[in-house]
Structure formats: structure tokens, C-alpha cells
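Sample 1 of the test manifest.
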Amino acid sequence: MYLAIDNCTNFASVCLYDSNILYENTWLAKEQHTTTTLPTIEKAMLSLGRNFNELKGIVCAKGPGSFNGARAGMSLGIGLGMSLNIPVVFVSAMEENALPFKDSGLNIICLMDAGRGEIYTATYQSLNDRLTIIQEEHISTLNEILYKITCPTIFCGEYVNQTSTSIKEKLGSMAIIATFAQNIRRASFLIEAGLPKLQEAQDEVPAPLYLRKPPITLSNKTVGLPKQDN
Amino acid sequence: MAKTKEYYCLTVNDTQRIGCLLGQHAFSGALFLCGGDLGAGKTCLAKGIAYGLNISEEITSPTFVLIKEYYDGRLPLYHMDLYRLDDQTSIFDLGLDDYIYGQGVSVIEWAEKATSGLFPSEYLYIQISLEKEGRRLKLEAHGALYEELLEEMP
Ligand SMILES: Nc1ncnc2c1ncn2[C@@H]1O[C@H](COP(=O)(O)OP(=O)(O)OP(=O)(O)O)[C@@H](O)[C@H]1O
Ligand SMILES: [Mg+2]
């Protein structure tokens, strides 16, 4: 059984998977990620009659999004991974958002609110039913993003709900707008993205995807997982 | 040159009155950075800001808990204090971003402890200095929104 955790924005999502989705829950956590996420997973385990010891791996969303949210989710995943001695892998929240469109044959742009008129964004290309990232996660503005579009593109992500009218106005039929149901991130897609990584047993140093880099070099105190020995 | 205004505040009440006006004129996403020595009156000013935002909860110094949040006013108030944080990494690790890029009003005491890159380019800087008697408050607007805010101040 595998567990996926996403705490990257006001919305939280968790999923339990064992050849099939056993449980998925997506809820508005606001600032309550730390008090709601683990109890949600515990309740799910209880109702399924399953146990944390049955977990074989964990997938965590690593951002972009809320600085503290992403850290809360990752810490929970890392903590569980350490105590159960199972691997933990990390997936971009934007990949999680774009994954449902992987066989669209189109470009997919993910938009997430970064505050003060700024947007977190990444661009993926759907090719041979797979997603390839063509522009890494970065900070931008809506105008800057729309200005560069030259081919039919799917827009997805939480921020699309607020901006769909402006996108349509600028791009017309070139823009395919994901629905509100598609714009929410679901942890089942984290599982889908993370399973191959877990199976390759990639050893990954956890680093939240933080896009507002301070211009100074921070001290050399790095945070990392002790090596898994399994 | 940044637009500035100065006030001489003889009593705690005077300082809180300036804070109260700032709270009344504060907008969603406003960032108030406070500088000044120990006991200068930063928390005192923050109390005034909270009052101006119609927050009824009592404001206490966040020196030890680092961040306090108040939600019962016109806008949320995030009150932070960087005094106890000695290196940039621990300030960075605090995750101030979620607050200062959020919907509420952020008041940060000992803002001078952070290198400028940790803050957005627009904010109101409030320097409080001790006078023989009372305090001097210097408000410095960085960005158009804060210049407008200063305009509205007496
Ligand atoms: N005009 C004045 N304005 C503000 N405070 C004053 C004034 N005159 C005297 N005081 C006194 O100065 C002290 C200010 O304390 P306050 O906790 O607000 O300072 P602070 O700058 O937040 O200190 P710290 O750096 O410890 O956080 C209070 O004891 C207050 O009574
Ligand atoms: Mg204080």
C-alpha cells in the first residue's frame, strides 16, 4: 500500500493506493494542515481496516505553493517514512495538476496564486501520452504568460478559476480552460506520478520547491534525510 | 527618495494613536516593518494598529512565539518579531512568505534583522527612536500604495 500527501496550498489531499485507489480525500485545510492531515489518514486506515505498517512507500507534493504548507506535508511524509523505514519521493504539485491531461496532445500550463499579483507556473507538453516539462516552475505574471502562447494550450490549476475570463479574452479558442473540478489537485495523481519513482527507488534529498529565492546564500545548514538502508 | 513623515510621541497613547491610524488605513496585504531598540515601542505601536483594525483580542509581544495571528478584525493581523532569530537561515525557515504574501496585514518587529531580500520591494518602514522624553516615529513609504497611505496620515 502507498500513501500520497499534498499540503501545498489551502487545499490538502491524501490518497491510499494498493493496486487500486482505496481512499482519497481533498479538503479545504486553510492553515490547519498540521492538525487535519494525519488524523484524516488515520481515520482512513481505520475505516479500511488497514495499518501504517502495510505502507511500502510515500509520495509527497513538494510545492510550489504555501511555504509552510508544503513543509508541513513533506515533514509528515518524511517522518512516517523514517519511522516505517520506507522510501519517500517528492513530486511537483504542478505535475500533479497537469497529469490528467497527459494524453491530450497539447501543451499544459499550470497556474497557482503566488500573492501580490504574481503567479507560480510551469509548462508541460503532452507527447506520446506522457508529460514532459518544457518550462520549469517559476514566478511570473498572467500577462507575461499569456503573451508567449502561440499554440492551443490547456490551462489548469487553482488560479485558473479566478482568471479564466482574462485568459479567454486574450487567447480565445487557443485556450482550453480546465473546469473547477479539474483545477483542484488530487493526491491520486501524486501516486500516479510518484509510483515509477518509488519503484526505481531513487534516493532523493527532500527539498521543497521554493521559488522566491532570497538573494543571499543561506548558511550551510542543510536539511536532509539519513540514507535509507533497504 | 522615499516619502517620509515624522511624529513626536510623548506618551504611550500618542504612539498607539499613530498605530491606530495606520490600522484604519491599512489595506489587504499591507506590510509594516518596524525598527528600533529594545523597548522603543514597536509592540506598543502594533497594539495601536490592532485597535485600528478593530481587533478586540489583546495583543501581546510575539518575541517568544515569533508569530501571532489575529482574525477578529477588519483584516487578519500577522504580528511577528525577529529579535530572537540570529541568522538568515532561521528567519527564512520561519516561512514569513505565507503571511507577507497573504491577505492580512503584517507587522514585523526587528525587521532590520532580515536582509532586504527576504521582503517584497514595497512596504512601510517605521523607525522608532528614543528621545529624552517620549519617542520619535519616522514613517518611510516604499511603493505607491504606501505613499498613498502616508498621504492619508495627519
Ligand atoms: N511615547 C512612548 N511610546 C511608546 N512606548 C513608550 C513611550 N514612552 C514610554 N514608553 C514605554 O516604552 C516601552 C515600549 O515597550 P514595547 O514593548 O512596545 O517596545 P518594543 O519596541 O516592542 O520592544 P522589544 O524590542 O522588546 O520588542 C513600554 O514600557 C512603554 O510604556
Ligand atoms: Mg516588542
